[in-house]
Design goal:
By secondary structure, the chain is α/β, with parallel strands linked by helices. About 25% of the residues lie in helices and about 20% in strands. The longest helix is centred in the middle third of the chain and has 20 residues.
Length: about 400
Amino acid sequence: MENYAADALFLSPRKLSTFAKQRTAPFYLYDEAGIRAAAKALLETFRAFSGFRQYFPAALNPNPTILRILQEAGFGVLCENEAQLRLAAGCGFTGERILYVPMVFLPAAEALATELDCTFVLDGPHALPHRAPKRAILSLRPAQKLRADDGTPISFDNLKTGMPEADLLRLAKRLQCGGTQSIGLILHACRNDLREAYYPAIARELFTCAVHLKEQTGITPDCCNLADGMGIAYHRNTADREPSLSAIAARIAALREDLLLPAGLDSMRLELAAGRGVLAKHGIFVARVMAVKPLKNTLILLDAAAQQFPDASPLTTYHHVSLCGKNQIPGRILCDVAGCQMDLRSLFASRRLLPPAQPGDLLIFHDAGAGGHAQSIPGTGFAPCDEFLLTAKGEIIQI
């Protein structure tokens, strides 16, 4: 059970309520100023690493306006399929600013990625394109658990990506013989990790592999990509603390001094593919209360369907929820939150302490900027919900 989450929005509850009267809920609302500030802060933190690059996973928010904001801020984009590649190209990403990450060989996507001069991120020999790509990043899968500096383990038991180091070294040599000009390394592990020791542990594993790659094959790796993993504290009023970017950067810099410089790899580029840690806090999902049902836990029924906010349904412990404008109302009751579908047990949120809700109230899902984009599945009868942007000038526009 979580305590009640205060409104703590990037616009006033009054402005949100006024805007909602003019629009049909549910909808997403993003904060342009917050997105730009977060992007700038990330790039500034790692600017000491010469040539540093950050790639945003397009799957976490495929809205073209959001992607264009990140492109203007200096980000690259990570794409998994042909549709995302076309989206990235339409948003101004080109060449090395696009990472193409196929899990299997996809002919149409491969052809487009080659045409766009993307960097291929290869999961193993099964994902090799017909022709050796100009640039490739190889996905590493450690043979055993990693131990972070704080003693906590990082397990790869259920990880479906990556290849053992020995296979990676063989594939690197094969690609080099086939004409690949640049080879890098990447390690996917977690999606939302709050440990400051997480990224340094991943960096240590990648830097060690980079040294082995040079020593055993003569290939000097071009980059090490720490992938996604930087998390945000979805839970309010808990012991969860978000990692310090500056502390992470300092620890990675120390590892670079210890591992890469002695091996002559001081020019190797550092990369990230951070997603939630950049965007999640700068978006909200807003739905309207349609009915309140008196059960053991009061059930709040919304006008939203699971397809419109897919990030919430399987993760009922995630996402703070609050009732717009009711933060100061005394008294809290234990509530479950559900959508408008005839689904016997699925919930948007469970066991939340909220003020008494009434039909017409706006219920806000916080930290919804990444991972919960609008979508629709044919046959459900629920259309994608609208998305809006609070611009840096304070206007709200549809995107």
